[in-house]
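User: Batch of two.

Assistant: Item 1 of 2:
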Amino acid sequence: MRFALALRWRLLLLWLVMLATSATLAYLIRDVYQLGNEAQVQKSAEQTRRACTELEAGYARATQFSERAVDVAVMGAVLNLVLGELPGIEGGFWEEENGFIAYAFPTHAGSEEKKDVPPTERKRITTLAHSSIVERSPLSDLIPGIRETVLLSACPTNFAGSRLVAWTMSRSPAALGQAYDELNHGLGLLLGFVVISGIWLGFSLHGWSQRFNRIEQALGEYSGSMPGEIPATGDAELDRIVGAFNRFRVRLGTERARTAELGAKLAHLERFAALGRMTAVVAHEVRNPLAAMRLKAENALALPGSQQGALKFILGEIERLDSTVKEMLRKAEPVRVHPAEVHIADWLAERLEAFAERSAAAGIELQPQADLEIWRFDARSLGRALDNLIANALQHTPRGGTVTVAASKNTRDAMSLIVCDTGVGVDASMEPRLFEPFVSGRTDGVGLGLALVREIAIAHGGEARYIRQPTGACFELEIPWRAS
């Protein structure tokens, strides 16, 4: 069995994938930015350490032939020479006795030359320089801040007995700087877009689902044979379906009206065709009895003693002619239906009661089956059709047989009336013409009963059919619910 998600769940799954993708992308972007910032800090720290080493080495070369360990003028020259090639790095010399004795920041971006050691970092520089003298090795320090990271390096000189240290300092913008703020703003906009799109998608799906449910309810509430018009929902896509359905409904109504008109014309033509066949039947059914009565009357006149027998024969033939004329008149009578709600069980019991004595005399059992409580139809006209079917079944069922009359609701939401017998069934050659007028399997039959059954079924908007069985015969009347 193929599994398919509903549209709403597929769209929700798509939105969840978008949310997961956006969250992953935001995490990766932040991580890459952090790695870039850390790399920048490491690069600045390396430059600061290298600048400190160059200051120490440069000052050592400049004073290698001097007996003085501290020469402020040489220090200033070395500072400007070394730091002038390294943008963003400042530095100086520190002595344990005298503290800061030289300072320079040749690449300072300000409008004025910077000559003083930054006061906020003086204590850190002093502590780092003193530690480098104690350990007699270069040291570095990193001071993280909100907007920037301060990088310090201290390199002790090689003068014997000297406690002189060269130091450098640089600043690396922290991740919380302006670029980081802009990154967070962009990621926030991305997250806001995903959340807002999810809310919009939820409202859209809710409204779409409600409109779809209204369409489904409108179709489900109608129980007639002609669907009602569905109002527009306001959704462009759904209204295309609604419009197509309403146009189909109009075409269906037009075709049904045309079918009814053609059916009426066909019935009219069938009546004319039946009239021609009826003329032949009337000629045959009337001429033969008349000829027989004439012969009997002539013999009675010639033989006076046979008059009573002749009169009895003539009365029998007259009764036969009268029955034939009644059947023809009944066939010619137009079928009109006046639907009303009928209790099926009571109605079937009433119809079968009319045949109780006849079936008992023939030794045939009548079995009613009613699986419906109420249906709407013309009880009188449909009773005539059912009577004809029951009478035919009794005529073709041998003694000890059974005639079943069942009423149920079929798969097309119509009432199915089925009359079955346990007789010999219908000859295969007669099946295509069973419901035609004047077609009968009995020598004494006129052949109007099943034709009348079909006309009554059509008048109810239904149909009559023969159901082939291994034994016996079954006839079905399919009657839809008649609203009016």
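Item 2 of 2:
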Amino acid sequence: MYDKNQAALTPPMGWNSYDYYNTTVNEEQVKANADFMAEKLRKFGWEYIVVDIQWSDPDAGSTCPEIQYTPFARLCVDEYSRQIPDPVRFPSSAGGKGFESLASYCHQKGLKFGIHIMRGIPKQCCHLHSKIYGTDVTADKIANPFSVCKWNGDMYGVDYTKKGAQEYYNSVFQLYAQWGVDFVKVDDICNTNLYEKNPYSAEKEIEMIAKAISLCGRKMVLSLSPGPAVIEKAWHLEKYANMWRITDDFWDNWKLLKNMFNRCEVWQKHVGAGCWPDCDMIPLNKLAYGWSGKPRLTEFTRTEEKTMFTLWSIFRSPLMLGTDLPQLDEESLALITNEEVLALNSHSRNPFLVSSDENQVVWASYGEGCPAKGMNFYVALFNISDEKRDVTVRLSEIQGISESAVYKVRDLWQKKDLFPLSGNAELSETIEAHGCVLLKLS
């Protein structure tokens, strides 16, 4: 049984199909995004290619935009109640090969491959009393018909007390290991929001899934959705998962981005190797093709995009791009390939809120070094107001700063050195509305 923390020593970085393709992504489109990542992004640390929801549904997207998920979907499944890819959208999966070929395609390019699943067991398999691999139990015997998803009707929850329940999840993840899956995003599990009085009602399914991963013989990142994650269950999430969403679906809306500062404040003490509170995907450039058949541009301004990427980076959220990578424009590409900012996300530690009010927020984190010999600091200044203004912090407010030291100051977005500052100085920057400045002190 491997240490689950070894699966994600740093925040995972990659691409997810959902924000652009919704439920409709196909093999050709996944490969196009993998090709782009391998050529343009891999050298900067981007590595995961994740196929999001409904990859086993032949009718996925057929009722959009009126209805996102096809009612009474007939999923592609094998004889043991396990979902398999729709062979029309994913031709290389035909003949029982599953995602093996597509995962291999990513691996050959130096990338990692991931998939989305809903928690539970397909309803159709329960109604047909389908088999569970390696047991004499059928799907209906392990299903909990009173544990369902509020927004997707494909699955019943799995009752952990039933014979065959753990064996079912074991067989699912054994199959994924055979395919070569490196990352699994499990949905309707971090917050089962149908059950408002018990939003963590899938706690035992998290444990079964974590155990199944530990037994499957392959290292996999376990990502839990949707949020908001339950802070009282932080200990449980840290024990069993690698990523957990701290928000419901995040989109290109300033109100949602402004609210993320509060969510990060709540979760700041739970960030570390193998344990990553997740701010959700990064919606930039073109979005939402799979909803309407035509894409739209993000509603974030360039300033807000930089603020979003800065907060995700200093908080050390996983970085999962939600767009169609081959259509990235040069400004977006520059945003996500700034090596100095990405180093902050990957290699800083212990992010913390320094101060906040209705107009400004200041975050900091620690870089390399130690207090005795001097260490580096990262400081992010955010103007969350609707007008240009000064954002100010006294460096002595930042725990660990030595008031007697003199620090070199580097602007990570502009990639240039600024004036030195003493540890007892006031740091002040004039920042445009919804903007930020990101500095390294060394």
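The chain has a mean pLDDT of 96.
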